[in-house]
Design brief:
By secondary structure, the chain is α+β, with helices and mostly antiparallel strands. It is built from 12 helices and 25 strands. Strands 20-21-22-23-25-24 form a 6-stranded mixed sheet, with helices on one face. Helix 6 packs parallel to helix 7 and helix 10 runs parallel beside helix 11. The longest helix is centred in the middle third of the chain and has 23 residues.
């Protein structure tokens, strides 16, 4: 009996079908060609999968990108095997044929893309700034990757609302000894507030009481007195702008503090760099003025620092001349536009680009950056809304993320949620597990949920620009180690925030008390108005309800 025969149950030999002839390919699921006949030694026709040649080509290109098989590089001896999506039969087995050579048409399209700059290498960086200008306001959005991390609004009426950094000649309206503050008329509808700690005075100009070693505000200021002051905080709600008499003029690398002995160097710089900058500033420091060296001065030459200081001194001389010729409350120095001011404070090599969709603002920003930081000038780009298919904020999904940032409920990745409620006194954030049911035990589920919440809380505080007192109600955790880990995660998330914060440990009730310096009115207030019907309460009383 032949080896290819087998016995059926009745004992009669049954011939076994022979396998595919040498040089042929066995049929597979999805083939569209018939199986080879027994004994047929002819080469099999090209095999076509159900997915088609396009699928094979994609698979081949994918392997090429991963660096595996199919890259088309020759083996030893120079037998380079071409690669396409069609499998062909050869004497040494099936291989992948190469992709067709680029045609004149594809080469022309590639050259056209390069001419248009589509293949231009963009600078590397963590952040991208998008500036969208409208007739009523300018919106500045900062993206980290694709995530919106900061958003600022500069309204068109910034003579009365966006006045942070402006210098005024003010007149003292009234002094309140019980509040240790004075109200100053600076030429806008709402008076500014000057606290005692922000008052500068000359010992020879005031009469100090012998019974009290410290000066009182009523001894330093009198009603009707004219002073020079600077705004340190914009007016928010019913509160007026906060003022100081310690004027400072920020430059690119240093901050000039006129008529002061103040001196300092950014703590973010290393010890070696601090010593180098200290030697330079000792030589270029102007007489009678203080200097504060900024982080941007790292690696800057002495000549660049000298030019920056000279421009600030000239600016202060001009301010003094304007103030000396006026005895009425008025503006004597206006700081740069918010977009330019943010770039002055923030723009560095961490930003891969700044896109601006307004031609006039683009020219202003580009000229400023070219003057103070020319190596970053090529990162300022104009976004032509007529040539692009989508508006700037829609192109980078800023519009969608802004709407989510205005909701009171924020979803966490695992299914938990945050509820953010703002009141007149403070902001309360409640952490819920929501759809997060965990896998192992309750303590582990709560701990993981609180860790996610801590990171998201830091992000939301920065994005929404929430200031003042903040209370976070985390879910109760039994383990002290878990509570400390959540508090550390919150502090680590807040470390990226340039606004000063102070965080306390989690209490026995699972509450975290913290403060964040209030520098503006916040995202919600900057893009909304109080409801005229409910006056911001969110509810309307039933007019048919009778209390009698």
């Amino acid at each position: 009996m032949d080896d290819n025969d087998r016995l059926d149950p009745s004992g009669i030999p049954v011939p076994v079908p022979a396998g595919p002839a040498e040089g042929t390919t066995a049929p597979k699921v999805g083939d569209t060609r018939p199986a080879p006949k027994v004994g047929d030694t002819r080469p099999a026709p090209p095999r076509t999968d159900l997915a088609g040649q396009d699928g094979a080509e994609r698979s081949s290109r994918s392997r090429g990108r991963r660096g595996g098989r199919g890259r088309g590089r020759g083996r030893a001896g120079g037998n380079a095997q071409p690669s396409t999506g069609t499998r062909v039969a050869r004497d040494d087995g099936p291989v992948m044929a190469s992709a067709p050579a680029p045609t004149e048409d594809t080469s022309r399209r590639g050259r056209s893309r390069r001419r248009r700059g589509e293949e231009r290498k963009r600078p590397m960086g963590r952040y991208l700034m998008c500036v969208h200008a409208t007739p009523s306001a300018t919106h500045i959005a900062t993206l980290e990757g694709r995530n919106l991390v900061e958003h600022s609004v500069a309204k068109a009426t910034n003579e009365t609302t966006q006045i942070d950094g402006n210098i005024y000649v003010g007149r003292v309206q009234n002094v309140l000894p019980g509040m240790e503050a004075a109200f100053i008329d600076i030429g806008i509808p709402k008076n500014g507030v000057l606290y005692r700690g922000d008052v500068q005075y000359d010992q020879d100009d005031v009469e100090q009481s012998r019974s009290r070693p410290s000066m009182r505000i009523e001894e330093m200021l009198k009603s009707g007195q004219t002073i020079l002051c600077q705004v340190t905080k914009n007016p928010i709600g019913a509160k007026g702008a906060r003022l100081t008499q310690e004027v400072s003029l920020p430059g690119r690398f240093v901050v000039l503090v006129p008529n002061s002995s103040a001196f300092g160097i950014s703590k973010r710089l290393g010890d070696t760099e601090r010593r180098r900058l200290r030697r330079i500033t000792d030589e270029i420091r102007p007489d009678g003025h203080g200097l504060i060296v900024r982080t941007a001065a790292e690696g800057v030459s002495a000549e660049e620092l000298r030019r920056d200081v000279a421009s600030l001194v000239a600016k202060w001389t001009e301010i003094e001349q304007r103030a000396a010729t006026s005895n009425q409350p008025r503006l004597v120095y206006q700081d740069l536009d918010l977009a330019v001011r943010i770039l002055r404070e923030e723009l560095n090599s961490d930003y891969r680009g700044v896109l601006i969709d307004d031609r006039e603002l683009f020219d202003k920003v580009r000229d400023y950056v070219t003057a103070v930081n020319p190596e970053l000038a090529d990162r300022i780009e104009y976004y032509d809304t007529e040539a692009e298919e989508l508006p700037l904020f829609e192109r980078y999904f800023v519009h969608e993320q802004l709407h989510k940032a205005l909701d009171r409920k924020v979803w966490l990745p695992s299914g938990g949620s945050l509820i953010i409620e703002r009141t007149e006194a403070l902001t309360v954030i409640d952490v819920n597990t929501g759809k997060n049911i965990g896998k192992s035990n309750l303590e582990e589920t709560v701990f993981r949920n609180n860790l996610e919440a801590a990171t998201e809380v830091a992000h939301q505080l920065r994005l929404r620009d929430i200031g003042g007192i903040i209370v976070i109600d985390f879910i109760d955790m039994e383990t002290k180690q878990n509570r400390e880990a959540v508090a550390n995660a919150l502090r680590e998330g807040l470390s990226r925030d340039k606004t000063r914060t102070q965080v306390f440990d989690i209490s026995e009730l699972g509450l975290v008390e913290m403060t964040r310096k209030r520098v503006s009115e916040g995202l919600l207030e900057s893009v909304s108005t109080v409801c005229a019907v409910c006056e911001g309460r969110g509810t309307i009383l039933d007019p048919d309800l009778s209390f009698g």
